[in-house]
What we know:
Protein name: Trafficking protein particle complex subunit 6A
CATH architecture: 2-Layer Sandwich
Family: Belongs to the TRAPP small subunits family. BET3 subfamily.
Main location: endoplasmic reticulum
CATH topology: Muramoyl-pentapeptide Carboxypeptidase, domain 2
CATH superfamily: Trafficking protein particle complex subunit 3
Subunit structure: Part of the multisubunit transport protein particle (TRAPP) complex. Heterodimer with TRAPPC3. The heterodimer TRAPPC3-TRAPPC6A interacts with TRAPPC2L. Interacts with TRAPPC2L.
Shape: globular
GO biological process, one term: Golgi vesicle transport
Structural class: alpha+beta
Helix content: 40-55%
Number of strands: 4
Low-confidence stretches: 118-124
Largest sheet: 4 strands, antiparallel
Strand order of the largest sheet: 1-2-4-3
Amino acid sequence: MADTVLFEFLHTEMVAELWAHDPDPDPGPGGQKMSLSVLEGMGFRVGQALGERLPRETLAFREELDVLKFLCKDLWVAVFQKQMDSLRTNHQGTYVLQDNSFPLLLPMASGLQYLEEAPKGCPRPRFLAFTCGLLRGALYTLGIESVVTASVAALPVCKFQVVIPKS
């Protein structure tokens, strides 16, 4: 419990700090892109570090789907103390991971003041960029390069789309 609350506070402060020190209060798309990149980069490094601490047998996955199942179950539990609710794939390198009660969105779902922060359909909003990076970093450590985006259609449901380009 304490770890979860600590992580949520830390995440909230990282996001707030990046937006608080923007030189221009209305930076436009360029400034927001920069802040999202910083958050996503932080998440990527954390995901890499988590991936490096995985047991050796975890690194022996043969199929992409097995790696994604591992992320949905074991990694998600390690970070958020719950499993991802669903995993879907088109079997062509695109995976959709859905969390119906994403912990970082729960506070927003319970307060009207946060609804502005979560525009419907907004890809990779600032409060999800870190988690997109975390997933991408863990996948990278497991030998899979990917593009990860997130979308919120209704709070607190979050969908992460993982696209793995074919080489």
